[in-house]
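Propose amino acids for all 140 sites.
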């Protein structure tokens, strides 16, 4: 009997905001090389969503957040790899961003919301749009 269940990948992305600026990292030697994306990564088997957000934020930037608030969910279905992208807002963030994965990220930079870079990581575009529009869900 064939397996009728599909595999979906789950991306956990974090909005880090400071003085009306959004933290983005320039991707390096990974899918989307040269584009700017949110801190984040994949949900691991058995991991809680909030734990994944905290882990990815710490692993990539060295930042600690006291808590996380749900931002939005994007069903990214227009690719050969279906993804659910789940966004969280980091709250009460401590520290300054450091490039903890220089083999995967060139640098972290703060961007004002009204001047985000044109070369955003494609899977994060709709998630960032949702955040700006305060929308919690999109099918893209």
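Proposal:
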């Amino acid at each position: 009997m064939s397996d009728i269940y599909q595999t979906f990948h789950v991306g956990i992305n974090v909005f880090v905001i400071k003085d009306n600026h959004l933290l983005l990292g320039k991707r390096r030697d990974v899918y989307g090389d040269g584009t700017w994306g949110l801190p984040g990564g994949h949900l691991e088997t058995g991991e809680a969503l909030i734990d994944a957000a905290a882990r990815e934020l710490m692993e990539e930037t060295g930042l600690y957040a006291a808590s996380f608030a749900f931002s939005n969910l994007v069903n990214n279905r227009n690719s050969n790899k279906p993804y659910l992208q789940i966004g969280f807002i980091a709250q009460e963030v401590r520290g300054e961003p450091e490039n903890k994965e220089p083999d995967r990220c060139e640098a972290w930079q703060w961007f004002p919301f009204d001047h985000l870079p044109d070369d955003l990581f494609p899977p994060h575009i709709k998630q960032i749009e949702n955040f700006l529009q305060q929308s919690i869900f999109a099918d893209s």
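The domain at 9-124 is CATH 3.90.79.10 (Nucleoside Triphosphate Pyrophosphohydrolase). The longest strand covers residues 64-76.
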